[in-house]
Design a protein that fits this description.
298 residues, eight-stranded parallel β-barrel, 12 helices
Amino acid sequence: MTQTSLFGQVATAMITPFTSTGELDIAGAQELATHLVGQGNDALVISGTTGESPTTSDTEKVTLLRAVIEAVGDRARIIAGAGSNNTEHTIELAQAAQKAGAHGLLLVTPYYNRPPQTGLQAHFTAVAEATDLPIMLYDIPGRSGVPINVETLVRLAEHPRIAAVKDAKGDLVAGSWVMARTDLMYYSGDDALNLPWLSVGAVGFVSVAAHLVAAKLKTMREAFFAGDVAQAAATHRELLPVYEGIFRTQGVITVKAALNAAGLPAGPVRLPLVDATEAEMVTLRADLVAGGVALPVA
């Protein structure tokens, strides 16, 4: 397989559409997944943080995953978020995802219980042994409280099914060392660092902004790998207001607001998140326009 065939190049960390009364919107999820693939995403992450995984049930996760796979078929890699801070539960989620037809797994660092590095290694290895799916580790200490250290990643890379890292740690030096010492594929998990990560060896993005600007992200990546760094940098700068707008508050909130305004399925967020206010929506529209994304006026 080619380097990025396991997890794609531009992947949206897809929101989970809900109905106006808060139930899972299966038809909406299929419509949105089809739209995202049509916009240039060659992978979708289902039930990640942006998919509100902390507030969806295990049954909802499997139902959503099956629906998206049915909608997009083999036109995109479908990566199931299966991480938790409970190894036994993570294994159950991973096995359910494999049974549902997922192409790969995204495993977030166990959060809140703050395991040591030996615990992280044992956790990820146990999950890797429990399915046949390739694994992307999700290193996000701002949420989990614990980074995956370089030496831990080097040891984990020895496992044949641990193949990639989604980095939201933002340490390009640490990531560079991991890439120098292993074959792990790196994906930017922080949109504002998409281009900087490419410059040190990353292969693609797991993006929230790709809900709205997948085509531009694809163009930026292609320009960089074609050697047109100036064009890639210009696109990066063009997208900065989009990134700023999305992450002024929790990204799920702003992306759902933008998708709803654009007439695409999204619906409300689930508590403890809250929907964007009118004032936040005004600011979001202005940010998006500054980045070349115009939303329909209500």
